[in-house]
Amino acid sequence: MLQSPSASTEESKVGNLLLFDLNSDERGLQWYVQNDTVMGGRSQGGFSITDKALIFSGVTNTTGGGFSSIRTQKIARDLSGYSGIKVRIESDGRRYTWSIQTDARWRGRLISYWADFQTAAGESEEIYIPFTNFMPQFRGFKLDGPRLDLSAISEFALYQYDKTDGAFELKLVSVEAYAQ
C-alpha cells in the first residue's frame, strides 16, 4: 500500500484529482460522524477541523461494534481514469480503513468497498491505496462481489476498525485520486 518516493514523482506526470485539502479554498468533501452506537456499541469518535488538518479522534471499544467513522455527505464522482486513493496523514500507528460506496447492492442492501492501511506513529505520510485493494463489504462482512464501479462513487468514509480497544487519532491533510 505504501509506495516509494519514485512512485510519487511518476504520478505527478499523469496528474491527480484533488478531492479534499485544507490548504485549498475548495475543501471538496463535507464530513459527518457515524460510530458503532448505531448498533448498540460503545465507541466514541468525532472530528475537528484546524487550519492544518481534519483531526479524526476518539476511543474504540470492542464490546459492541468496535468502530468509529467519519463519512462524506453524498457525492457524485467518476474516478474510472485513476488507480487509487492517496491520503496525506499523520497518525498514531494503528490500522485504519478507507471506504468507498457506490450504488452497488447485495440482497437489496447498499454495500461498501473497504481497504485497510497501516500508519506509522507520529509520522507525516502519503499513503497510496490502490483501487484493486478495495473489497466489497456489508456491515463488516466480506463479500465475493460485485466489483467496484469507479464511475459511480457516491461516498467516502474513514474508519477506525482495527478490533483494538483504546484511543485513536489521525490527522487527515488531503485526499486525492491518483493515476499511474
How is this structure best described in words?
The protein is mostly beta strands and 180 residues long. 6% of the residues lie in helices and 49% in strands. The chain has a single domain, classed as Jelly Rolls, CATH 2.60.120.430. Strands 2-5-12-7-8-10-11 form a seven-stranded antiparallel sheet, with no helix packed on it. Strands 1, 3, 4, 6, 9 and 13 form a six-stranded antiparallel sheet that branches. It is globular, with a radius of gyration of 16 Å. The N terminus is likely disordered.
The percent range for strand residues is: over 45%
SSE sequence, one letter per element: HEEEEEEEEEEEEE
Write the CATH architecture name: Sandwich
Question: Using only CA atoms, what is the Rg?
Answer: 16 Å
Relative helix content: under 10%
N-to-C CA distance: 14 Å
- What is the overall shape? globular
* CATH fold title: Jelly Rolls
How many strands appear in the DSSP assignment? 13
Q: Let me know the CATH homologous superfamily.
A: Galactose-binding lectin
Q: Helices and strands: which structural class? A: mainly beta
Query: Largest sheet at a glance?
Result: 7 strands, antiparallel
Mean pLDDT: 90
Q: What are the low-pLDDT stretches, counting only 5+ consecutive residues below 50?
A: 1-13
